[in-house]
């Protein structure tokens, strides 16, 4: 599991603090909210990625290769 540090405005947190029993409950709530947001985001990314045809995805991979990369020569080396 990853760990990240976030900053929250003290005044804003004090406004909502009465809704929670203690800091542990705040931590748990924040954890659940972040996970929910990440799940929503992952679903959107998955849909966007799956919507692309194979040729479009391969072009994206090819664009990240070094300019002098020779695909044919690379394949000849492998086989």
Structure in words:
The protein is mainly alpha-helical. It has one domain. 67% of the residues lie in helices and 0% in strands. It contains 4 helices and no strands. It is elongated. The two termini are 40 Å apart. The model has no long low-confidence stretch (mean pLDDT 84).
Quick gist of this model?
The chain has about 80 residues and is mostly helical.
Task: Considering the chains and any ligands shown, give keywords for the structure.
single chain; 79 residues; mainly alpha; 4 helices; 67% helix
Which bin fits the share of residues in helices? Answer: 55-70%
Distance between the termini: 40 Å
For the secondary structure, the number of strands is 0
Task: Report low-confidence residues grouped into runs of 5 or more.
Answer: none
Overall domain count: 1
Q: Which whole number gives the mean pLDDT?
A: 84
Report the major sheet: none
Radius of gyration: 23 Å
Strand content: under 5%
Order of helices and strands: HHHH
By helix and strand content, what is the structural category? Answer: mainly alpha
Shape designation: elongated
Number of helices: 4
